[in-house]
Amino acid sequence: MQKRIIECVPNFSEGRDMEVIKQITNAIESVKGVKLLDVDPGEATNRTVITFVGEPEAVADAAVASIKRATELIDMRLHKGAHPRMGACDVCPLIPVSGITMDECAELARALAKRIADELAVPTYCYEAAAFKPERRNLAVCREGEYEALPEKMANEDKRPDFGARAYDEGIARTGATAVGARDFLVAVNYNLNTTSTRRANAIAFDVREKGRPKREGNPITGKIIKDENGEPVMIPGTLKACKAIGWFIEEYGIAQVSMNMTNLSVTPLHVAFDEVCRAADARGVRVTGTEIVGLVPKKTLVDAGRHFLLKQHRSTGLPERELVRIAIESMGLSNLKEFKPEEKVVEYILEAEEQKSVKKLVDMTCAAFAEETASESPAPGGGSISAYMGALAAALGTMVANLSSHKAGWDDRWEFFSCWAEKGMAVMNELLALVDEDTAAFNRIMDVFGMPKGTAEEKAARAAAMEVATLYATEVPLRTMKAAYKAFEVVRAMAVEGNPNSVSDAGVGALAARSAVMGACLNVRINAAGLKDRAAAERLVNEAMEIQALAQQAEKEILAIVDSKID
Questions:
Q1: Catalytic residue ranges
Q2: What is the pTM of this model?
Q3: How far apart are CA 76 and CA 174, in angstroms?
Q4: How far apart (Å, rounded) are the C-alpha atoms in residues 265 and 279?
Q5: N or C: which end of the chain has fewer CB within 10 A?
Q6: In the chain, what are the domains?
Q7: Which residues contact 491 (CB under 8 A, 6 or more apart)?
């Protein structure tokens, strides 16, 4: 299962006192499971933008902890700065990164807003996707009048906050109010051009940005701007939705760029914007020579781009995600000006690197290290993890045959067929790789129960209940391995029948590995189910496992018959 990750970008009304800012970031970093990514203080604005990421529950805890510290250290009655603001924590948006939808993120933001009001007595408004009222989707509506307008807004039924509404008092005077929202990930990207002309860069930017350019009388460049009845310029929309762009010249690089903020990647993905900027540049005699991503980017953005460029080449997209990311980097010239390092620029990879410091995962080991760890005196990893890994290798072999077949000479018209099978195989492989570590985690849960106290009757009862839960989980995990490994048969069967004949033996080995994975995991289901007190549940799980095992044995027999017929 894909890990749920969100980003949080709270803006605090202090940009000059570094000690205050440090205490706020310390509060964030004190919460386990979050990673502080960026701290950007501004002296003129007297405001600091902080970025951190993690799983939803940890991020919410870190947000509350940081806002609590901010309200203790920042007195809004003394605050002055160039940026609009209404509280010690002015805004606190949550942004979905992976494994979570915008609707889910909006619900999290509403729950966070309520926590801030209930636990910290800070009035909160909900904005953008989290807004309860349509007009409050616009942050400016929530922040209208800024901090100074709060006494009047607290007394106005229509302008009161969504949570924590009360008569204006000493507490609100000190902390102000906060706006909590959910919005899309904003990607800042610059497209490098083979020109020094800011004017041409601007022309390209106006061609593509959603706002477009002013409509003019006669000459589209020098003609008089046409205005509407309100005196506002009439605009000719650009070709890219949810994109803002301008052209500029960068002295450091000696080139012009189209600088773009992409505010909704689900509406306009990065690869779509890249292709469109290339088209608009070409129409004006200019070439895009590379791309520069400013700040961080979600992994999905680059994975989707890698798939897009492979599809344009009529190549299989069933590749490991790191390879898809590499293709995206090469295709868009992300290392044109300076090396693009995914481990420093992709949100999920940053979190994975942090996690690896404290958690040793089996799937991150070398083959030799994994084998040595298995051979050690420790009881885990054991048969369950090995079964999951055998299943992953079975799916990997089927995927390999699909990828080799997709670009076999003379089979060009079949690339899409094999690409679909390669993607299916990759999905099964990734599911089983996750189960390699989950099986060991399930065993460790049982070991943890043995460490629970068992002196009193209550402690014994709690220990027995915990053991039943842990044993049930340790039975269900290998059953999931069986189900996932069984899916590999569909891929290897298709490749045995349809794939490159030179690789049919690989499909056969895949069938053997899938059978071994299913049967190995079945042994774990049976031995763990024997420890369940709930005998009805145990019988149900074992019966289901035995049915899958019988199907796997039959599937292996049929696939090997196909392989033998093609080899002979």
A1: 83, 439
A2: 0.84
A3: 5
A4: 19
A5: C
A6: 5-182 (3.30.990.10), 187-348 (3.30.70.670), 360-567 (1.20.120.680)
A7: 395, 398, 399, 402, 421, 424, 425, 428, 510
